[in-house]
């Protein structure tokens, strides 16, 4: 398949839509970004990459980091993790509080904010300190990307903390139900540091390979997860990776995927490739508008949906 021609064609087709989204301004440090940007990359199992657009530009990975923290938590806690976090779609916005109250402080899944904050709490328990939990997630992301240059953006992390009332409310609510062990500010601060990591679509498409290959990095041969754990992460990405638009994403794209409010999306074609798109303008559910469209065109043109 001529992947380069296909993604070039996609870049042309989505360019009229670049003006339609809206950048995430609830994080002031992300509000000023030029939304007229687009990148798409794919990485095959032998390391071959195809890219179009600003595929080397670093952007804030935000909720895409939830895939990586969930991976580490699942590796250490396995199915015990589901005592504190579910694996059902929420049907609600990523930062919603209401369901958490009804459901006694147990987040529906690891990809809504409450779930990812809870995963961070579990990682702090496992590693002993916030600093180590942050560094281990960073180390894991560097390993799966085979790139030691990946760093967090302290300005973005501080901006989120300064305006993080809703996430602090979610953490406090979980704490009130005895479903958070560490100090609220410490857990949320560590979560924000993971969210503020910066990567490009080239790096992210490479980082997703372990999930396309049953938990094993096909290039370096490193095993991160069992096949069953890896498949379950893909199942949760498919059903919960785009919050209250997860059904739409499964319907229109047909791949396990995870979005972030920085405008990035990662996806996997099982047994074939890792994929990433980026365009900062978001749709009403907080997912990249152009990125979603680009992935929809990709599976239409290649037939590579899982269905
Ligand atoms: O906690 C937040 O609101 C952000 N750090 C992450 C949210 C996010 O990326 C939602 N994704 N589309």
Automatic annotation (TrEMBL):
BP-aspect Gene Ontology terms: glutamate biosynthetic process; L-glutamine catabolic process
SUPFAM superfamilies recorded: beta-lactamase/transpeptidase-like
Alphabetical UniProt keywords: Acetylation, Hydrolase
Pfam families reported for this sequence: Glutaminase
Enzyme class: hydrolase
Family the UniProt entry places it in: Belongs to the glutaminase family.
Subunit annotation: Homotetramer.
Protein's UniProt name: Glutaminase
């Amino acid at each position: 398949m001529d992947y380069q021609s296909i993604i070039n064609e996609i870049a042309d087709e989505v360019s009229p839509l670049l003006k339609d989204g809206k950048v995430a301004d609830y994080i002031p440090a992300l509000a000023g970004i030029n939304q007229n940007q687009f990148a798409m990359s794919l990485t095959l199992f032998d390391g071959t990459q195809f890219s179009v657009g600003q595929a080397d530009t670093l952007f804030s990975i935000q909720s895409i980091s939830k895939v990586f923290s969930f991976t580490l938590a699942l590796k250490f806690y396995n199915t015990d993790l589901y005592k504190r976090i579910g694996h059902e779609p929420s049907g609600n916005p990523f930062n919603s509080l209401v369901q958490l109250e009804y459901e006694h402080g147990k987040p529906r899944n690891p990809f809504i904010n409450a779930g990812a904050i809870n995963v961070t709490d579990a990682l702090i328990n496992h590693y002993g300190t916030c600093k180590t939990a942050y560094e281990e997630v960073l180390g894991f992301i560097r390993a799966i990307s085979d790139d030691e240059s990946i760093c967090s953006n302290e300005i973005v992390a501080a901006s989120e903390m300064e305006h993080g009332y809703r996430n602090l409310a979610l953490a406090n609510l979980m704490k009130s139900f005895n479903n958070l062990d560490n100090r609220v500010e410490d857990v949320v601060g560590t979560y924000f540091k993971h969210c503020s990591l910066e990567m490009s679509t080239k790096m992210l498409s490479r980082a997703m390979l372990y999930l396309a290959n049953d938990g094993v990095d096909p290039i370096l041969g490193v095993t991160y997860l069992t096949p069953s754990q890896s498949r379950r992460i893909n199942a949760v990405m498919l059903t919960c990776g785009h919050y209250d638009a997860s059904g739409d994403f499964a319907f229109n794209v047909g791949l396990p995927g995870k979005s972030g409010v920085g405008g990035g999306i990662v996806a996997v074609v099982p047994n074939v490739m890792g994929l990433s798109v980026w365009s900062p303008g978001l749709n009403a559910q907080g997912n990249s508008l152009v990125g979603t469209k680009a992935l929809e065109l990709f599976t239409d043109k290649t037939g590579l949906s899982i269905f």
